[in-house]
Structure formats: C-alpha cells, structure tokens
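Standup, Tuesday
Yesterday: got the pipeline producing structure tokens again.
Today: sanity-check two examples.
Blockers: none.

Example 1:
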Amino acid sequence: MTAQLGRIGIWTHYSAITPQLAADAERLGFGAVWAGGSPGGDLAFVDEALAATDTLVVATGIVNIWQDDPAAIGAAHRRIVDRFPGRFLLGVGAGHREATQGYVKPYEALVAYLDGLDAEGVPTGERALAALGPKVLRLAGERTAGAHPYLTTPEHTRSAREILGAGPLLAPEQKVVLDVDADRARAIGRKTVKFYLGLSNYRANLLRLGFTEDDLAGEGSDRLVDALALHGDTDTVAAGIRAHLDAGADHVAIQVLGDDPASGYRALAAALK
C-alpha cells in the first residue's frame, strides 16, 4: 500500500472537507480524512485538501461504482497522485441497492470496475474496497490494498481480519457521540443509524454479527445504537475505538456525530495519542 494512513483518521461527508478542515486534522495528528457521501466527478476537493497539508492522506469512502466510470475516476486519480504522490487512497464500492437503479449482481460489477481501474493504470496498492461480507472482503484483499468496512463493530473487525489475513489494510469506520448522558447520546446516534436499517446490505451484515430482527426494527434497539454509535466520555469512546485496533484493524476512521464534531475530534486526538 502506498499511502500511510496512520492509526486514526476522520470520516466525514466530502462536502465538509475544506482546506481548513484538512489542515486542522493534520495539526491534531490524524493520519487521514475519509470523504464519505459518494464523492464523484473530478474529485477536485481532494487536491484542495492536500494542497493545504504536508502529510495528510485523503481517502474516498467511497466512490460509488454506479455513479462514475473507471475512466473518469482513473483520470482524477492520475492527476491527484502526480501532484501528491503517496497521499491519496481511492476507496470504491457498490453502495446499496435501494439508492441505485439497475443495481444487479454487485459482486460482478465490482470485479468489472476493478478491471476498469486496472486498465486506467490505478495500482492495486492505491485503492481500497468497501466490504462487509466474506466474499467482498476476500476480493478487497486480492484486488486492492484492503477493506474499508462501514457501520461495523470490533467483532466484525476481528472476523474481517481473519478473512483478509495479515497483509491487507483493514480500516473500519466507527461513529461516536461524546456525551455522558446516555439518553441524549442515543438520540443523536439513532438519528444517523436509523437510515441504514432500511438498507439490505447493512441489515444482512448486522444480522451476521448477531443482532436480531428486533434490534433492527423501527429506529433500532438501544443495544444496536450503542454498538454502532459509541457514546460516553472521551476515555470511554477512545477505548471503544482502540477495540477495533485490538481486533486487527490497521486504522480506524472516526465519525463524530452531534452539533460540534470539531471539538470531539480535538478531544479524541488528545486521548488517542
């Protein structure tokens, strides 16, 4: 793998990734900023963020294969890495069927997309794959630098590491709420988590992890929300993030929920040093 992500990064919607956010993330010691929300097109925001920093890596989490073809993304990749070698990781994935017309045979579509990136000269070590289930995790290990699982737990991280083996990157995302009031924190976490409970790929993965249909019903059980959006004081949340590292993650992308994520990132940066 070319890019060096460090152990901890920030995950946020790509529209929030400004030069100032990138500079702040680097100053706080985060190794990477992950651009969520299916960024596409020419990925111009990546150049802007990297130009404002010296060592930070920007990773896409993820470019949706149904949205932009490999030629367009390959051209963006070449432009970025030519200017900022070793500081960009192209994360790609199939998204979810509920948001995509023509979403059929996603595994075959992922293989074809990776073939297209090969044809565009995107090296294996400069791309990653959104992966939850065993089949796509194996594909990530075989055809990319590794896997970027989303909406998971340390138990999933442990299983994913067993499937990937010792070499490939494993970089899960983890939502957190820095609030010691459990009811208030769960309300914040549930607001985000509930969106995913209607999406078949996430539901299937959560059921594989041992959650039940009752946990996934409505807006999600407290048990489910507590696992997917860690909450508590800074030390408690930091311990939950370290649990992914202990389970085999190389890097954890933290998504702070709430009205003031910047203060959360500052607190966690200090706690996780």
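Example 2:
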Amino acid sequence: MRAEVILVRHAQPLIPSPGGPDDYHRPLTDTGIVQAERLVDDLAHFRPSLIASSPYLRAMQTIEPTARASGMPVQTDHALREWDSGLGPTPDYARHYAESWADPHSTRPGGESLQQLTERATAILESLARQHPDGTVVVGSHGTFISRALVGFGLTTIDWPFSHAMPMPAIYRIHVTDRGVRATGPGL
C-alpha cells in the first residue's frame, strides 16, 4: 500500500461567540473564502482519488473550490469533525485546551478526551487510506483533529503549542506505506 492523505486545516472562519453560529455552521470569513480559492492549484496538483471533509461548514467551504475544480464530489464524514472539547465559546479556551493536552485522557461533561479524538482521527484516516491504497485522499478538517491525527501516527513532538500555532489554512501530507508513516507540513 502506498496511500497519501492530504490533511487541510480550514481557512479563516468567523470567531466563535455566544449567540453566534454553532460550531457546525460557522462559515469562513471573506478572507477565508479567498484563502480557500488559493488552495485549489496546490490541492488539485495531488490528483486526488477522493475528496472528503468534516461536515462543519468552514471545512466544507475550504475544500469545495478544489472539489469543483477537480470535478469531484465532497464526501462528508462525521468522524472527520473537530474535537468536541465540551467547552462552549469562551475567551480563555487556550487555558482549557492546554490542560487537556497536559492530560489527554481527561474529559469534560458532554465532550471527548483528546485520546478519544486521536483514536477517532487515526481510525478514519487509516480507513480512507485503505479504501484508496494507491491513491491520494484530500481531507478538509480542523486544527485539533489534524494535530491529534499526527500524534496517532507517531509524531511525538506534536503538542499544544504546535496545535495552537497551526496556520489557517494549512496542508499536511501523510504518506502511508506498508513500512510506516511519514508526515510533512508546517512546523514538522
């Protein structure tokens, strides 16, 4: 098997706010829409055999221009969604996220632990790679999802500062072979 998974962190979205769109419906800003259009040439270059996305609007809007240009549909999968931290919009989210990264097994009421996210992320990405063993899968997703997927694929240097500093958008390439996994992207 020689699959490649291209993970795309969404472009710039509206900032979460109390009373604003929920996490599923937060769209890209005007800047984010321009950023998504600028990704088309880079992502189409990979000649994807599948384009998949988190069902969250900001991830879909980031990947849709590439899908249009490639003449392909976008396959959404709930397993590609962002981490459900159990937190609502809060200005001090960074403190809470840092605490979760310090103890990846901790869970807030109604949320999932970072360890559970790691297991979910690696399972869905491995499944997509197996379904396209000699192809390239482009996946629109989210920063914490991508960070924890990288952890799950053995990158032990991934931590909260890495996740927090991940640019929007960002592209990470994961090469999956019978010999192991290799990843490249910003900060790696």
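Quick observation on example 2: The two ends are 24 Å apart (CA to CA). The helical segments are 30-38, 40-44, 57-70, 93-102, 114-131, 143-152, 160-165.
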